[in-house]
């Protein structure tokens, strides 16, 4: 992702309604998620000789267990010689080297992320048509669906946009019992999980490239549909390992979708400040949507 200056940014006309929204969960989910990602641990700490006067706290968390940006160190792609490399040809050895910060997420933090965003609210669109939505069913959202929703919402894409997709994961997850959530966790360990999301196809890859989308994010666990429908067009390969385009996952878009519907507009200005750690793999989005 090439650095941008203010002179490079498109003219924004999104700041009209004096509304702002934080479209992310506060840290990782308390119950943990799949793929053996544990819940966050938080502890209030005393300061020696300052007991009762001042306090510290300590956090231990996996950014991938809540709303997060997948950094470029997260996912590799398979090369013709059978080796796997990350963005820019980075190797796992470089990522594990404590002296190397190559493609670490801390580089994003130096300038942050700022762009116009648009929301494709598949959940509302589907429910209006009597289509059942389940964020953990492997339901595929087609590019034709995206085009139709954008047309209905009068969304005109612009170069440099961030693409937000509400596929229904948050709504599904919050309706599940703890037993169901633990079963999902086991399903990921057994590689029997399913995530609803965007279709995998050459059309989608060309759509993202031709429209100069600079980041994608959604409420889903993987943004794209899982299990893979077409390994050749796996979006993690293209976006993270190939182009260097961030993927945001498990953003809480429920209230954002409601605000968009109330205002009658599905575009907004987005700011994001990733963690400033040079070797980071992922980061909470620390994201705001401004209207």
UniProtKB/TrEMBL annotation:
InterPro entries: KFase/CYL, KFase_sf
Sequence similarity: Belongs to the Cyclase 1 superfamily.
Protein name as annotated: Cyclase
Species of the source: Cryomyces antarcticus
